[in-house]
Amino acid sequence: MRRNRKVRRKGNKLVNFVLAVICAIWLIPTVGLLISSFRPAADILSTGWWTIFPHRDWKTVETIELPRETDLRQPIEVRGKTFSDDELRAGVETDGQRLIWENRRARTVNVQEKEWTSTLRFTLQNYETVLGGKTYKITLPDGSTKTEQGSGMGRSFWNTIAVAVPSTIIPVFIASFAAYAFAWLRFPGRKIMFVVIVALLVVPLQVALIPILRDYTALGLNGTYFGIWLAHTAFGLPLITYFMYNAVRQIPRDLFESAYMDGATNFTTFSRLVLPLTVPSLASICIFQFLWVWNDYLVALIFLGSLPDVQVLSMNIANLTGSRGNDWHLLTAAAFVSMLMPLAVFFTLQRYFVRGLMGGSVKG
Fold it and tell me: How far apart are CA 183 and CA 194, in angstroms?
């Protein structure tokens, strides 16, 4: 018995260690993204986010001015030693110090020594630039300033909420009714219809984009919220119906028989019995559907468009990446803004998440 307990404890420690490593792998990039989003542009473009913690780094203690006529194509003499131009560009260590160009044109060389330091400069300017539509000035690593136009992501954030919330509630509501009907009601063609729905899971949504777009154009639904709600509902219904069917099917038959004997209608049985008992499954599929719609780019681009008044976050960030690929200070803030709502939804519903996933895996 004692030996078994020791083996079990070692196994638990190994599992906990592996889980801790996995959590660290997922957490470290997120922490780095959060820290970077609050750092000034000059710091983001020149140093890593980990430099906010105490570390040894090179600090300039002296600046040497070389003669103006120094030929950079020849060996360059600094403090009685000669170095090449490439070595001074990369930084060369000698006598515990590092020599590196400060300004090649002015022929000035920095003498640096390693010291304990940390970069603790933070700002909200990245978020102001991303969320607002005004112009802002940022300081670059070389000390110069640059004026930038805000991305107006605040509007895209609310547009994404306007798309994601109805596109999650509508298909989950409809699929729950369908799952109850397929699981417990008897009607002609029930099995065939269910097989068709399951078969739709393997059909790529890309094959339906062009035909649906033509119909949307003819009906005037293209570029409207109602159109994108219908599209996400149609694309999400097969998976949600199949998922909810497995959850509803696990409810004991005796409960339904008791409800029918008490005179309950199908709607009463569904609202008073099925919905409360499938809350974990509903929460789980809501998380999946919401995350898919929130991060969607292709469907929103085709059926909603990229105009600023209806543009969603995924399109805004894509435009930001394309037009400002070097402005990492803006990309970090934009990425973290796009993460806020999915994280809030997940942590709000995460207590139901595992129970919902396991809902249809055990019978009885």
Answer: 10
